[in-house]
User: Fold this.
Amino acid sequence: MRGMRRSGCLPASERVGGAGLASTRAQVGRDGQGGDVVCAVRDLTKTYPAVRGRRNAPGTPEVRATDGVRIDIRRGEIFGLLGPNGAGKTTLVRQLTGLMRPDRGSVEILGHDIVRHPERAARILAYLGQESTALDELTVSLAAETTGRLRGLDARTARAERDAVLEELGLTALAARPLKKLSGGQRRLACFATALVGERPFLVLDEPTTGMDPVARRAVWGAVDRRRAEHATTVLLVTHNVIEAETVLDRVAVLDRGRVIACDTPAGLKEQVAGEVRLELVWRERAPLDVPEVAALRDRAVESGRRWSLRLSPEEARAAVAAVTGGAAFAALDDFTLATPSLEDVYLALGGSAGSVRGLVKA
Amino acid sequence: MSMRASAAVRNRYKDDSRSEQEPLDVSVVPAEVVPGAARADGSRSVQTEAGARAVADLGPRARLWPALGAVYRAQLSRARVARIPLLFVATFQSVGIMVLMRGVVDGGGEARAVVAGSSVLVVAFVALNLLAQYFGQLRASGGLDHYATLPVPPAAVVLGAAAAYASFTVPGTLVTAVVGSVLFQLPLTHLWILVAVIPLAGAALAGLGAALGLLAPRPELATLLGQLGMSAALLLGVLPPDRLPTVVQWARDLLPSTYGVEALGLTFGPDPDWGVVLLDLAVCAGVGVASLAVATWAYRRAAVR
Assistant:
């Protein structure tokens, strides 16, 4: 009964949460007649075959990298894929960009069947991968210009777009430097520039801001916003960075072990754990387990060294804070913080914390 | 209804022991409570139909020659950053071999073979060995994704890179041929033949190098194959063929660089047989076309996995 499983992310029209019926109807009306889905993914499945172990290397079992994924991305939105390493984000993106054939399922981008015609992906989307080896020895200027030419621009247009994009991203001063000689963040920005030369209605960005300073980050999101406002450009963003996800994304799909375990606006997702707060306790040396209240908390804590992280209801949190700040436990306490839930808490609450994975942020 | 929904939400989070294999349903409300038009299946099909109707125009495709030119130019510029020291190495290696061989061969046919072999060795070093390494690394590191997500014909990427690497060999080959001719007192009259020998031997060897680099399952293997190819070109091309055992002579006939060496060597003679020269060059061209076709196929295969 595999067909019955849903591991998906559909527009708000199909998701009825705490929003109430009236607003749901409004959403349906809009989506129903708009037909504004830019990228529709259905039942996308890809399994990596098992690797048999050799003498010195243990084998790996069969891995289902994407498992019945269904996603709808609407025009003009910044849609995020969030998940820990190995959740299947990059595999999913490679299937959307025609770089990898799925075992099963369909991908439709702007009306084109990408599974049947993977070569069309290159003509409707721009992809920023994690690797820059193809461009490393080129100058920033030539990397942008060549990419524009290979995106089908004529020489003059490619040069004009190159100049405009480098200016927009503040890269003009670095135009004559080879990418190899730039810092990690600058190189990433230069690669982002190549993705913008030769306008595309759909941008697929795999961790675009890794290693960037705040100025470069702002340049990236400024450029994305301008394209959204002027051309209704749609963006699919792969990210590890929960804070960035909360600030820039319109909607986010949380991936875990190849499956979409949640999909909503960041605020909508946080609402799901709104009843809870996060309590962080840092002990001076180790937790005073002889205090019964502390011992009781231990079962619910995610421990990392001296640090305990707990998700509690507000009343429980208040009691816990009272317990650790008064009496015997206080002597052992180094620091504590109380915070409202973040996307990371959502991820943990959804059961994404599978064994070794403690959270979303790359260590 | 909203009460039911929130209860469902709460239940899901409470039940932490739930098995990972259990189907997860994102929508917490059963489909039947969602009114008519909003039914999950209904609106989905509407959207899919609407999406199918609104087929967007595809962006332009990069045409073969402009794309090839762009790749060629970009690859050529890499020489400035990364390749110049290696070009010196290639040239010095060939000149050094000729100096060594001066004590061994005594002019005539053997001298011609040594000079021609050393000159074409520069082409083998750069076009075969370095290109195999380049494509091997590009493939292993995921760098091919950049080209594979651009609407560029595979042939443009392979031919552009191959042409650039063949071009890198021009100065070294020229220097080697001239120095060798002076060293062994050979005539410089027919050195113009290099205009044909470099691109044709270059095409054959670069095609081979690209194919090896793109087909090798690991980058170390690509490097190894490139080095082996170059060693073969060195041993089988530079050593005068008359002194080699028969089996090795057969191997020599199988190596595409041999035909470039033969063509160049013949033109050093007093009265070259142009028909044979032409035939040798035709073999180079044929191997070039075939190996570049294989390399293009290998690129396609490597780009989409």
Remarks:
- DSSP finds 13 helices and 15 strands in chain A.
- The radius of gyration of chain A is 23 Å.
